[in-house]
Design brief:
The protein is of the alpha+beta class. The chain has helices spanning 2-23, 36-50, 66-75; strands spanning 27-30, 51-54, 61-64, 79-82.
Length: 84
């Protein structure tokens, strides 16, 4: 039971971190007819796909490849515009 709770906590922290990375971008993603839940799911999936680990002084550091993230969102039918 403790392993399950730890895994759930780790997944939630990861999702929050990835969402924070997405919201720090200067782009606002729009797609006609998409719900906020669908946009959130697509954003999380694209951010997950765009993650990469790079060597750092304290060990591997995770970064988001912004080009790959944007390409993923556009492939899903989203358009980028200035953040509101």
């Amino acid at each position: 039971m403790l392993k399950h709770a730890t895994l759930v906590t780790a997944l939630i922290v990861g999702a929050v971190w990835l969402t924070a990375c997405a919201s720090s971008s200067s782009d606002a993603w729009t797609k006609p007819g998409v719900t906020e839940q669908e946009r959130g799911r697509d954003t999380l999936e694209c951010l997950t796909q765009a993650r990469r680990a790079t060597p750092g002084p304290g060990g591997p550091e995770e970064q988001v490849n912004q080009d790959r993230y944007r390409r993923c969102m556009m492939d899903r039918g989203y358009s980028a515009g200035p953040a509101r």
